[in-house]
Specification:
Low-confidence stretches: none
Strand content: 15-25%
Radius of gyration: 21 Å
Largest sheet: 3 strands, antiparallel
Helix content: 25-40%
Shape: elongated
Number of domains: 2
Strand order of the largest sheet: 7-8-9
Order of helices and strands: EEHHEHEEEHEEEHHH
Oligomer: single chain
Mean pLDDT: 93
Length: about 210
């Protein structure tokens, strides 16, 4: 019987999912180089790692409560689903459709481009002590609003404000503008709708974002 992948995953593939070659030995143990890996298996394995690797969860606390639905513990089930998706050159996402979702499942996941993925996580990762999109400009002693442009990859200066909330609202308006342009580029209507909904209904999800 095959060893479970990250303690839960059942690799029931009827073909070789990974090819390696031994390139040497370190302390008596084989050192191997990966020559090829099935793309469906790679995504499945990485998903299980984020959901069920205690070592990864200790290193990256954001994965603490993340899990994988039981039906996706079996590789063949996940592989069949993935083959029906527009997955090439894209990343598996669990919380675009449902903000704050922690469970990988066929109902909650979609494949998104790196551009979309970075767009929806950018503001959260760069947030400081103020509301998202806002910082304090010491020289002018006013709040400053700025927004990362996902198309030219530049930081856009949006103005100075005496009120933190006003600066945040200007950032949100610009973020929604970018979201609409990005949505128009999507082949998946669910992804396009989720991008717009995320920022049109930002106040509903603000506790998750902030």
């Amino acid at each position: 019987m095959k060893k479970l992948v990250y303690g839960v995953g059942i690799n029931d593939a009827d073909y070789v999912v990974e090819i390696k070659e031994t390139i040497g030995y370190v302390d008596g143990k084989q050192k191997q180089k990966q020559l090829w890996i099935c793309p469906f298996y790679r995504v499945w394995r990485d998903m299980l790692q984020r959901g069920h690797s205690e070592k990864l969860k200790l290193k990256y606390p954001t994965y603490k409560d993340v899990s994988v639905s039981k039906e996706w513990h079996r590789f063949s089930t996940f592989s069949r689903w993935m083959q029906t998706q527009d997955w090439q050159d894209k990343q598996l996402d669990k919380d675009l459709l449902i903000v704050g979702n922690k469970v990988y499942s066929p109902e909650t996941c979609v494949f998104v481009s790196k551009l979309v993925n970075s767009f929806v996580t950018d503001s959260i990762s760069k947030r400081g002590e103020y509301k998202i999109g806002v910082d304090w400009h010491k020289r002018d002693r006013r709040y400053r609003a700025s927004c990362h442009n996902p198309f030219n990859l530049k930081q856009e200066h949006l103005g100075y404000f005496t009120n933190e909330e006003d600066a945040h609202e200007v950032w949100l308006s610009k973020k929604l503008e970018h979201a609409r342009k990005l949505a128009a580029m999507q082949s998946d209507d669910c992804v396009a709708k989720a991008l717009i909904d995320r920022y049109e209904n930002y106040q509903t999800f603000s506790s998750v974002f902030e």
